[in-house]
Specification:
about 425 residues, globular, about 30% strand, 18 strands, alpha+beta, 9 helices, 6-stranded mixed sheet, 7-stranded antiparallel sheet
Length: about 425
Amino acid sequence: MNNVILRSLAVENYASFADRIMFTTEIDASKKEYLENTFEIADKRFNKVSILYGANGSGKTFFCKILREIKRLLDWSPLMAMNNSQLLSLPQFKGMDAPVKPFVFDIAYQNKPTKFEIELVIDKTTYHYEFNILGKKIESELLTKKYRRTEKLIERTSSSFKDIVLRSELKDFENKKQAVKEEALCLPIAALLNNELASKIVDAIQGIQVVSMTAARLKPTKSKESFSDERLKKYLNIIQKADPTIRDIKVSFEEEEIARQKIENDDFENREIIATKTTVGVDTAHAVYENGEETSSTPISFFAEESLGTVKLFTALPYLFDVLESGGILFIDEIENGLHLLLAKEIINLFINEESNPHHAQLICTSHQPLLVSGNFRRDQVWVTSKDNYGKSTLHRLNECKTSRAKVNLVNRLLEGAFGCNPDMFFERDI
């Protein structure tokens, strides 16, 4: 879905975020610096790239997990309608029914619901979706639409389907809302039952990719187009910068159906949920030399014999090009993990550059590396996570700092810990 913009993401009482934190890609309109780092949609300007900094354990990874948790609950809700223990016991569904964990370091938060909020701009219309959940039970749910005025489309005030009010484009789900159980969200059930707008919003949220560079290699994307001959040529050009001996890359892509379950409910119009497993195999050919001349090539086991950084880079490329070529949103946790600083900066520059990012794809990444923002960066592109002595994480935007940019070296101030993003020293200073 090309025309999707992440405007904001917020959470309250989740993981280390005890109190509400709110992240936005909408720029501070009072700042006119480096507008080439931004783009305009529906009379609003948004950042192409946003970077979150913080010490280890400050909440950066939990920030990425906010979106993963929203996606998990959207996936889980249709499965709830099936109530099929055999299907739900499959490995890929393990943990999908887990309760949402609130902030655990203060008893006062443990019996309070967790609140998730996400705001998207789809085809120049803003959709705000939020819900409260306590453990596994949905306590409230709200979907609004804003084009010229704000309109409520879903308004739910309890766990019961009887307390769901539907309006406008969601009105045709009214006679099917009894399919919504107290542990399920209304929006994905409406999408499953062919409500066009619900499907559009759910697809937009599920289309946001979240990856972590801390993994030895990233899970394969589920798009065969990501491994087309044209794409592989682009990947090869980039991988050769990390390993100049590579001459060719061959990828085998297999998607296997491992389960098919019909939903035994008249309201579901004989629909089925199909579980699949995706496997990607990679073979590379490398140059062989004799007396300094390239004479032949030899295969190697790419995943077993290449460097960890090269493997990470290769498995990250499909995610990058999927959004750069079509538009979309990509979250990367610890973008510099396993990569040289210049390569991490090159990935960021791909999103800043209008030529390589013609559809205004957005990159949101976390990092320990303040040198990534050396140069032409807006302060409202940079966020800082920090954690206090009570285990509570907070999130602040650097443009909230009132000091003149002309008087402050941003990188130096980050390294000095001026914004609370550096860890305490492990050792006494006299050791």
